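ok, trying the design again with the full structure, not the truncated one.
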């Protein structure tokens, strides 16, 4: 179940209902804000930060055997770097069914904090969610594409390498932003250029829990109009007319 990036007001109605109905919550304490943890009060809850996946599955098995209704709370949206594929597969092997409840991702909140659209008229119409390869054996190369909005997760501690990869494709003055701990009380929203990225991150001593957005949409100022809303554009709900 996705519990959003940190602000408890960003939980969906469905997530709140599942929380109300459950009596055991498993969560990663290092990634869940205190305000969201407050929603677990009155229920049995367990911090899984130090546990392996097998230990988490065992905890679920024990809860199910005791007749408990269980929520596994993921920060953001569980479908993005949430390890739910293996979680669901292992639960399935134990005969335990799981429901996925989506949540608001930190990249969506970051776009709101930046006051931007991730796809803008005359600009990118695609969004790439990616990360730098790191320590695990299944890593793939980070995708860098100039004509898309890029959202780079889990790589802020490798910001120099991120910057080098971006500069292979983008000009140094291309717009970029860093959002640190989106939805938390100490969130930071930093705008700049690709050439500024390392300095921005180092100056604010950011080493984790931040993402990078690179996009032409960061400097959109209304200079291009959306065809869909242009007076002369015809679609199934409106006939175009002369401006």
């Amino acid at each position: 179940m996705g519990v959003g990036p940190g602000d408890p007001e960003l939980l969906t109605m469905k997530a709140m209902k599942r929380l109300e109905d459950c009596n055991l919550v498993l969560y990663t304490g290092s990634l869940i804000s205190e305000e969201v943890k407050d929603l677990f009060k009155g229920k049995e809850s367990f911090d899984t930060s130090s546990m392996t996946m097998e230990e988490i599955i065992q905890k679920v098995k024990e809860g199910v055997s005791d007749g408990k209704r269980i929520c596994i709370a993921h920060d953001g949206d569980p479908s993005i770097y949430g390890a739910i594929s293996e979680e669901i597969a292992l639960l399935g092997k134990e005969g335990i069914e799981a429901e996925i409840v989506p949540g608001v991702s930190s990249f969506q909140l970051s776009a709101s904090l930046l006051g931007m659209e991730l796809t803008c008229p005359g600009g990118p119409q695609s969004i790439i969610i990616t990360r730098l390869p790191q320590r695990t054996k299944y890593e793939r190369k980070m995708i860098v594409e100039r004509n898309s909005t890029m959202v780079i997760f889990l790589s802020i501690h490798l910001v120099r390498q991120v910057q080098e990869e971006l500069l292979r494709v983008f000009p140094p003055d291309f717009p970029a932003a860093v959002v640190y701990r989106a939805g938390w009380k100490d969130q930071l929203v930093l705008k700049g250029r690709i050439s500024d990225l390392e300095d921005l991150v180092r100056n604010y001593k950011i080493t984790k829990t931040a993402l990078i957005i690179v996009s032409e949409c960061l400097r959109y100022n209304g200079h291009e109009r959306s065809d869909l809303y242009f007076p002369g554009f015809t679609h199934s709900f409106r006939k175009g007319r002369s401006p």
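Keeping the full-length input from now on. The chain has two domains: 8-93, 106-219.
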